[in-house]
Amino acid sequence: MNTCCAPEPQAPPADAGGKAAVVLITDRNYFLPTLSAALSADAHVSCPAVPICLFVVGADDAWVRQFEDAITGTKIRILAANLPELPELSRFHRDRYLPPIALARFWISSLLDPDIDRMLYIDGDVMVDDELDSLLNTPAPLEGLAAAQDFAWIFHDELGLSKYRDLKNIRDIGCQPEFYFNSGVMYCSIRAWERIVPAATRFMREHPDLCVASDQTALNHAARNTLTLLPPRYNYLTDYMMVVDPRTLGLRTAIWHFNGAPKPWNSAVWPWDEYFNRFYRMAEARLGGCDVETPIPPRRQIEAGLAHRTRARLRLNWVYPWRLRNRRRKIVPRLLEPHPSAGG
Question: Average of pLDDT values for 289-316?
């Protein structure tokens, strides 16, 4: 892993680690895609001692028990979670497209078994597509967390009003674009997480209008100067995929992240295709007969996402083709970085 701590990179202390877990958290509404993410993680974690913990906020034990047959033969544990603190913090949630359930990750450490000392958190709209063992066997930072950059670093040197607003917000929270991370995939020790979260929730309460990306903004503020950068192959975002599809270069991606809308299971359109639905279809098949909702995103969210993708495709290919070349030059070398276990 490349350790990047603005302004002067320093390697944070690391925990050689005891027991690791892959962790997801959702509500009943988004359970189906989150289970598909858990199934993809289960397929790419070889160690039977690493649990895939899927917490469902607002569910009870009776509802959870209906999935026992569906997860037979996997390392997945589906657990009901009660978070009475969530509604109070939700009052400070400002992201109009992201539901407040995203804040539930703040309480993950209180839900895990005490023998878990480090976790790989993944969002419910990801698909794991390559082994995770090399990351899970890597020491977790003690003083911060490891995460991949959000896409601001690929356009921070471009001109544009919308980009200016995004970059200004990042700097207003005390971060730099090169070290602003996406919170959809995070690897850290439980001790570090329990130090970061109070600072993040405090910042969110005190500066809700600065938290335009809700918990992600707050976590970036709280973990600034202690970030260990993961290569983008561990969190390959939609905006990366619109620039270069690693499959065309013969490169493996560990975690695809379908951030934004539509998700491939809503509509398998550029840049995502039906390939990215195979674990979602598996989840649907396993859940046949279970009491599970199919999440339907707001129409305006789908329309906004499609408009963004259409606009980006037009601009990158016809209006500003040099931006496509510039962004590609930034992304491809990062894709070639070695696994964390190989150093970096």
Answer: 90
